[in-house]
Amino acid sequence: MRFDILTIFPELFAPHLMHGVTRRAFESRQVDVRLWPLRDFAEDNYRRVDDRPYGGGPGMVMLAEPLDKALAAVKADRGENQPAVIHFTPTGARIDQARVQELAAGPGAILLCGRYEGIDQRVLDRHVTLELSLGDFVLSGGELPALALLDAVARLQDGVLGDAQSHQQDSFSDGLLDCPHYSRPEVLPDGREVPAVLMSGHHADIKRWRRERSLAVTAARRPDLIGAARAAGLLSKADEAFLAKL
User: Fold this and answer.
1) Is 10 helix (H, G, I), strand (E, B) or coil?
2) What is the pLDDT of residues 196-209, one digit of tens each?
3) Which residue is catalytic, options 15, 90, 107, 195?
């Protein structure tokens, strides 16, 4: 899959693409990331990509013409394979695991990273097919949401994580939050211990404990996910019996 990123700060992406376990996806081009510096498409000697908004008000607006030219170049380079054009904005749909899984199984996308007060609306009206948001807060630009999306998509690719089952046990993979995890030592100096069931070697008991802890954490912190999982038929009779005891 291929992600084309339109940004005025391409240098923000290099560290992420070269470090961490997800770098395997980028180095192998399983997730092919191509950066398009927007200032390269500016018309004047100052490489300006923003100007004051019509109607007055604070801040600056990203200009339509450099963005139109950059998008035209990206689309020409991609040829017939034209994916979604994604704009990151607080008004967009919330990014969730279902959306990530959908993108991870597709051809990629063109990621439009806005800055300042926003992008000339005519660009959005003409080109953007999907608007996404990290949450109900405001960031300085679209680069951080783009990086988050790339990371989430990359870790779902075959061979990227050391254990192929790792992402299958992540939070949201089955509609619930993940259970707690423990490692060595068995007992910390202050006496805190690993739950005995995890030391038992009894796989069925461990599986049940993890499921119940997942249910308990989700019910306490994100009860809305319990309702969604129930509506989607993801809860078993044993799950419902356990939840009734909480």
Assistant:
1) helix
2) 999 999 999 999 99
3) 90
